[in-house]
Structures are given as structure tokens and as C-alpha cells.
Amino acid sequence: MYVGRFAPSPTGPLHFGSLVAAVASFCEAKTKQGKWLVRMEDLDKPREIKGAADTILHQLEAFGFEWDDTVAYQSQRSALYADALNQLNHKQLIYPCTCTRKEVADSSTAFGIDGRIYPKTCLYHPIKSDTAIAWRIKTDNSAVSFHDDIQQLIQQNIGQDVGDFILKRADGLFAYQLAVVVDDAVQGITHIVRGADLLDSTPRQIYLQQQLGFSTPQYAHVPVAANANGEKLSKQTLAKPIDTATTSQLLYDALCFLGQQPPSSSKNAPLNTLWQWALEHWAISTIPQTKQIIIAS
Ligand code: GLU
Ligand code: ZN
């Protein structure tokens, strides 16, 4: 059984980059006779844009996407994340941390792929009282590796490359890394197709799956669309929201971006015709093995 998913964050409307991830995960699931779920990653309420979740679902509908099952909202699933955190606590794999960002900056000497490596201060010294607590997971220097269906062999040493990372923030929010791992496991996700901007996060997620006794899904990281400055298309880089009036053209562009070769005559074909072509000809093997592709804006 194949269960795939698309997991947008409602920090703005869909843009071309997120459409690409939706198309890839959908085509891969449907050509494997699988289910395709949509999960709204709305944990980070401070970063959420009001109405964006509904806008995204309407955009997906306008493109003709159909999802199996009801949409899951991370904001309603905190109990699941708390359970997982408790489980890790019972296994003595996590510890509270009261360091401020400045204290970490002043005490850390090593940089990893995601900023400074936390020097484990609170693991070895008493934490401050009356200070909000974040929870970190202990990491060591063993390697995590996996075979990605597009990017091939990926290897990371979590201890050296990332360090003891946060699972619950001092402001009480569960971290993306924990929530995504719990949700993928609880929802029975077997295959994850998403943007290569998350490739660096995958070893952390596999590490968490191992500590929580979850199985590891198969991963495929598609290239992300970047602008001429090499910046990933995102709300921050002012990517244009996709225009649902030109769905066929955009679906055509997304398929080309993914290395598929729809006949140019299909550019203006009805959306259904293009979807039919896509599902008949979809080949994950023709997606370029690269992390980003620059597109003209
Ligand atoms: N919510 C994440 C994003 O929009 C995607 C998470 C994932 O696919 O694992 O970047
Ligand atoms: Zn600390």
C-alpha cells in the first residue's frame, strides 16, 4: 500500500514551487495506485497568514487535485506531539534547556548546517529556574544515511552537522521536525515526495523515527524552483501566488520543470487532458537529480 502526502504551511498562497511539490507527490501516489493526503502544517501560528489555509485548498481544487481523507491540521494534533515527547522523555533521550539565543551564540564554537551547534550546556549544568523551557534531543556522532529516489545516497552526522536540536520551543510550540515525524507515522505515510529544501532535515527526521520506533518512509526530494538570485521561491522572496486562471499553462510548466515532456500542443489543452497525459506518462526517473533549478520570473 502506498500513502503519500502534500504538507503545505499556510504562510501564504501556493506559488509555483509548492505547485511543483504537489504535482510530484500526487502523480507519484496516483501512478502507484496510492492514496494522497493533504496535511496543513499550521503549527507555527505566529507565522501563519490568516485565510491562507483555505486559499491553498481552493487553489488545489482549481487545479483538479483530489485528496483522499479529510485534511489534517497540525494545530489540532498537539496531543500526539506531546505523547511522542513524553515517550522520548521516558527513554531519557531529551532534556530541558533554558539557554537564550545569545547564550548559545556566546558559548558555541562550532557551526553546523543549520547555524550554531548547541554545546549541550543544559545537559551538564543545572537549568535556570523561572525561565521558559525548551526541550532538546540528545544526538551523538553516528551517521544517518538513506537512499533518496531522486537525490541518491544522502549521509549526515547529526551530532556534528546539527547537534542537539529542539523538539519543543520555549514558547510552547512543537518543532516542525517532531510534528512531521509523528504525523507521517500516525497517518501511515509510506512515501514522501517533497522539495529538496527539506533534504537537510530528513536525517533528523529519520533519527527521530528510530528513537520513537517508527518505520522510515521512502523519500524523494524534487528540485526546488529558485529565482535568478538563487533564492528559493517563497513568500519571503516575493514569489508570485499562482494564478488559477491559467491552470493548464502552470500544470504544463510544473510537469516540464519535473523533467516530464508533455507535448507542447497540450499547453492549452483542457486541464483534464493534461492530467490524463501526466498520469499516463509520469516517470520519477526523469526528474533531474539536482536540488534547485532557476526559473525565469
Ligand atoms: N510544511 C513544509 C513546507 O511547506 C513541508 C513539510 C514536509 O513536506 O515535510 O515547507
Ligand atoms: Zn541550554
Give an overview in words.
The structure is a single chain. The chain is an alpha/beta fold and 297 residues long. Helix content is 33%, strand content 19%. It has ten helices and 14 strands. The chain has helices spanning 16-31, 52-62, 78-90, 101-107, 121-124, 158-161, 176-186, 202-212, 247-257, 271-281; strands spanning 3-6, 35-40, 72-73, 94-97, 111-112, 115-116, 134-137, 143-148, 152-157, 166-168, 191-195, 218-222, 224-226, 292-294. The strands form six sheets. The protein has a three-stranded parallel β-sheet with strand order 1-2-3. The longest helix is centred in the N-terminal third of the chain and has 16 residues, at 16-31. The protein is elongated, with a radius of gyration of 20 Å. Bound molecules: glutamic acid and zinc ion. The site of glutamic acid has 7 residues, from loops.
Mean pLDDT: 94
Sequence of secondary-structure elements: EHEHEHEHEEHEEEHEHEHEEHHE
Give the overall silhouette.
elongated
What's the count of strands? 14
Question: Mind describing the biggest β-sheet?
Answer: 3 strands, parallel
Which parts are unreliable, with pLDDT below 50 for 5 consecutive residues or more?
A: none
Q: Strand pairing plus helix content: what structural class? A: alpha/beta
Please state roughly what percent of the residues sit in beta strands, choosing from under 5%, 5-15%, 15-25%, 25-35%, 35-45% or over 45%.
15-25%
Number of helices: 10
Molecules bound to protein: glutamic acid, zinc ion
> Termini, distance in Å?
39 Å
Percent helix, as a range, is 25-40%
Radius of gyration: 20 Å
Strand line-up in the sheet with most strands: 1-2-3
